[in-house]
């Protein structure tokens, strides 16, 4: 089982879109994927047409469990309408976790423990993070083999990325987190100077960590989200989906090299 977190402290950069689009493509490749929505706003759950207020359980309940094992974690999972794709939905109450549990020891490894218990059930786990550094992001990073960082190819993007990279370095230094990084340039518009220059700068400054391509601006992503479908099911031949296909192949190769 391979675990990826999709994270960036900057909001609106394409985290949820990246999560759901990659999941769609993974499921089409006949691999089993579990999505974990760690954002109290529950954008990923809403995208997949779940109203977390109406569901009997959510990720919040994981943090209330006395014992974390397969029997206790499985009831938190819902099946999506897509084959091979399950979800642990988010709930508004996740926003209270930092206040309630921030100071309790051992809380940073709860999600990792839960995913370890599900290791036989899935090929991939994709964790969609909120744009805040808190208990949820700490849990996500500690559980991950790789952190995917979508970066909007826009002016000021580099500032936000520097902040995120500092956070990740601090996490990597702590013993609980050991992950690789891949920066994913998103919302690339080749007609604008901002996009061209930001992409160029990313490649220079983060040459070892950046995916050397980019996800283009594509209105199909928004349309797909309104239809509650991963873009590859909604508009399988659009250029945005093509970019994520290339990205997935690239990431799979990285994981294979890593294991070799
Ligand atoms: N490549 C793209 N081209 C055009 N629109 C995009 C692209 N990627 C994402 N979007 C749109 O941009 C908006 C923000 O994307 P998304 O919700 O994925 O970002 P996010 O980083 O998860 O945001 P948040 O920090 O609020 O969780 C959405 O309306 C989405 O449909
Ligand atoms: Mg999001």
Automatic annotation (TrEMBL):
Pfam families for this protein: AAA_31
TM stretches of this protein: none
Ranges of residues in domain AAA: 4-177
Matching InterPro entries: AAA_dom, DNA_Partitioning_ATPase, P-loop_NTPase
Record family assignment: To B.subtilis soj.
Protein name: Cobalamin biosynthesis protein CobQ
Organism expressing this protein natively: Salinivibrio kushneri
